[in-house]
Amino acid sequence: MAFLEVKTPRGITKVQLSRTPVTVGRLSENAINFNDDGLSRRQCVVEPDPTGGWQVRDLQSRNGTKLNGQKVFVGHLSNGDTIRIGPVAIRYINPEEVAANPVGIGALSPQAARRARESAAEAQDLSTIDADSRVMNVTAEESQTGYERTLMRIIESAPEKPFGEEDIGLVDCRGVTVHHATASGVTRKKGKGGGDESAESIRLFRLLLLACFRARATDLHVEPRQENAIIRLRVDGLMMPAAEVSGDLARRVLGVVKILCQIDTSLKVAVQDGHFSAMAAGKRVDYRVSLTPAVNGQKLVVRVLDSGNSPTRMHELGLLPWQYEKLRAMSVRDAGLMLATGPTGSGKTTTIYSCLREIDLDTRNGVTIEDPVEYYLEGCTQIPIDAKQGHGFGQILRSVLRQDPDVIFVGEIRDAETATVATQASMTGHLVFSTVHARDTIGAIFRLLDLGVESYLVANALGMTIAQRLIRLLCPACRKGIRPTSAQTLKMGRQISGIPEIYIPQGCSACLGSGYHGRRALFELMEITDRVRDVILRKPTISDIKQALEGDHFVSLQGFGIQLVAQGITSMDEVDRVASGDS
């Protein structure tokens, strides 16, 4: 009986023909369906023809259907004919046709005869293999390995799919494209040879980068175990299992990353760092790599520096109107110190870069000192620190002050030297932005004092502190409204009253079952007024500073979050998780 042999980059599958038309396309209701941009929703159909044989008919697809290399609208199928659609090849095989004309094989051209003999032999092999198995319609998932299936579920859950895995080109740290995009339809075969192993590791790495794109992941983790390796993504701030692969394949992926970063592939017990880039559909994304030895091998963490997922201007941050006005006024001042506080990964650098973009860097000299430089800022001199050479924040900041700067961004105040120089610079006619690790805006003041900065310097130099946290947003497709509990009503009563309904997460395919999709920042902004300065000049306490803030515009992180709960943007549990105690 005739059948179709479907070949894809992921393998070979057989579809039996039984006088029922076989449709091909992207939609799941097609008998042969692949989620591939090379196919139309309804590409073509293989159906019985008037002569009792089979024909292929194009369904007005956008890319057309090729039969033996030629575009056709309707084409009669003979044994061995190949229908090609992008990277998918569908061969029509009819063993009865070959058996009925054995003499005819010798009359064919050598190439056609060889193709016919191969078709007959493969037909026999496939018939033997499938003799005791159930014939199923082919889908992309059926021809995938275990890790591909789990990754594809993440990839296909995204509502927008501007490009696919084959559109991703890998660029090493020198800017040289090492692995070009293969969306032109080049097929890759799997096997046991060295070249095939290399192709598999590159394909897996591309799938991982695509999963990061689609899931908006900020970090990719490859964690070795005793036998296998676990791959996890950090999505919306929380870790999410992505796939499990063999230890050998994971090590080959690490080799691909090391080549891209131009770091020594032979070292297995050393801490290694590097960076590389990827290009897809004209978009460039940078990646920062960290390799650390663990019990079962090196662990790989890749930080995704995708500026497309972050706000770039101040009005995109989601500040309250009065917060926006105060922060913008601070950003265009001639001098002063502005500190952003919060844990690692809370978006402090993004906020400060948004402030820097409000400044006319054509008329002012801007310098950034970072570890490392994460985002490019046009018109600004960006300097990475080099701790190995003894060039820390403090040393470079002293040098930069001799470069006639107007605006300085110090990546982080970590020590007394940097803190002292930064405060002194802000008092001598420089606008200084920096970050510190503190719980909230009031904690930033105590952090400077703890580092040994004199209270008079803190009081006179500091102009504003801003604290922030990133909070997950409820998935709009599956959120569920409920009546708030008495405890929740009491908590909201301080800020907002009369809210009959709040929302909780549910979980669906669009949000990968988490109930949340995307993040935004909670902000707490404190302007250093004269009353606050008076408190700082004497031995301040938290209650003294809060009392000095009474009557001014001030909203805590928790208060900001409660406003988002009232608007149905996030849940009360998420606010409690992120901003608990920040009231």
List keywords for this structure.
single chain; about 575 residues; alpha+beta; Tumour Suppressor Smad4; Beta-Lactamase; Rossmann fold; 3 domains; eight-stranded antiparallel sheet; seven-stranded mixed sheet; 17 helices; 28 strands; elongated
Could you characterize the architecture of this molecule?
α14 packs antiparallel against α15 (542-549) and α16 runs antiparallel to α17 (572-579). The chain has 17 helices and 28 strands. It has 3 domains: 3-143, Tumour Suppressor Smad4 (Sandwich), CATH 2.60.200; 146-306, 2-Layer Sandwich (Beta-Lactamase), CATH 3.30.450; 310-470 and 520-560, Rossmann fold, CATH 3.40.50. The protein has an 8-stranded antiparallel beta sheet. Strands 22-21-23-24-20-25-28 form a 7-stranded mixed beta sheet, sandwiched between helices. The chain has a 6-stranded antiparallel beta sheet with strand order 2-1-11-10-7-8. The protein has 583 residues and is of the alpha+beta class. 31% of the residues lie in helices and 29% in strands. Mean pLDDT is 84; it is low at 99-143 and 184-194.
